Amino acid sequence: MTARICLFLVGLLLGVLQTGLFFQLTFTLSSGFGIYLLVTLAWLAGSALGVFWGARWSMRLALLAALAAYGLCSLAVNLRAFETQYWPLYALLIMTIGIYPGIFFARMAKIYSASQLFFWENNGFIGGLVLGTLLFMLLGRLVLWLAPLLLAFIVLIVVDSPAADSARTPPS
Description:
By secondary structure, the protein is mostly helical. The chain has helices spanning 3-28, 33-53, 59-79, 87-108, 114-139, 142-158, 162-167. 81% of the residues lie in helices and 0% in strands.
């Protein structure tokens, strides 16, 4: 699989995850601007952790931790709908999700040029935002659980596999 597709797939997954977080928190916690800030700032804080301290962490384990945190966040917000005292828990879970993209960017920046890395991942991310929104509108809330699982499974097989790591060479 080409490098561009791998970068795009990770971006797609991250866009779907962020869309899922936004919709679930907006519908069951608050529809104010604070939710957008919570998701964005906690995600960026987790990404910074991943970039600066995630060099020794496994990308595969970080992705599995991100999925577990996504599931826990979804479960908690549905069990405790409209209870705002749990914002710190949601922020911690979203930061955990954000660690994966931080590790991903730190590792891939050593292999790909910044322009190539950001172009393909960002286009995938925008595609994930659009895909997550459209799937949610057409198929309902269940898609917010299933789409990230399916995409993460594909990313684990295609992008984060040991074979893909050893076969990956810098593109020309």
